[in-house]
Write a structure and sequence with these properties.
Aminopeptidase
Length: 244
């Protein structure tokens, strides 16, 4: 039986932001390989005591044509960008920044951080989205307890919990279930109304693939300005990702 060839990439130490800055271990890019799928950059840092390493202090700098993914195991990082975003990322959360046609940002570990440990990954956007509008998203899914373990679902479905699904053009699928014990109390309408309020505030739009949401929007025309019709292309995309 033939086995696939395994290529081992050795990370190298790189000062992040200058010769006296925190050191990261960079696996991508390197001479032997610049991409793994869409991943074009991979930094791993820590666990480091901030008192010894100085922590993260990355000055404002630009990006185009890619997305950055920030994930922490310990500590806290403060993010600011040219969109006006001011956000933080902590363990169990993800910051996703889309450079698109150009964005500038800075990342700094917070004063309360004692041990900093995390990764920064970059995704090379496909040609169709390389010059898309710049954007920033922060995801902090609620934990789910299953058989003594704590789970957080960022993509796909696990233990009955379904996370958002992003096509790369700001279309997102949300799946929410209400326990039968709370049926008939108007919770669905409250959830839908709050979701629509959040959609409008974020500048996004909604495609009502759910019959209940479609019925709600028919009764509440004040949300017509943020609603797009359900098309065969959307239905096919959703069926594929839900495995239907």
């Amino acid at each position: 039986m033939d086995h696939p060839e395994v290529e081992v990439l050795t990370a190298r130490d790189v000062p992040l932001g200058g010769p006296r800055a925190m050191t990261v271990r960079r696996t991508l890019p390197q001479r032997a390989r610049t991409l793994i799928g869409a991943w074009c950059f991979a930094d791993h840092y820590g666990p480091d005591r901030v008192a010894d390493s100085g922590g993260m202090d990355v000055a404002p700098h630009p990006h185009t044509g890619l997305q950055t993914v920030s994930w922490l195991f310990s500590g806290e990082i403060e993010h600011r960008d040219s969109l006006g975003t001011h956000a933080f990322v902590r363990p169990g959360e993800i910051n996703l920044m889309t450079g698109g046609h150009g964005i500038s940002h800075t990342e700094v570990s917070t004063p309360g951080t004692t041990v900093l440990h995390g990764v920064q990954l970059w995704v090379a956007l496909p040609d169709a989205h390389r010059h898309a509008p710049r954007a920033f998203q922060h995801h902090a899914p609620e934990p789910l307890r299953v058989d003594g373990a704590e789970l957080r679902v960022f993509l796909g479905t696990l233990a009955g919990l379904t996370a958002y699904r992003d096509r790369g053009d700001q279309r997102v699928f949300f799946h929410t279930e209400i326990d039968d014990a709370y049926a008939g109390r108007g919770l669905a309408a409250i959830l839908v109304q709050q979701a629509l309020t959040d959609v409008r505030a974020s500048g996004m739009r909604i495609v009502p693939v759910c019959p209940y949401v479609a019925s709600f929007l028919t009764r509440h025309q004040e949300y017509a300005d943020i609603t797009d019709p359900v098309t065969p292309e959307i239905t096919t995309w959703l069926d594929e990702r839900l495995g239907r």
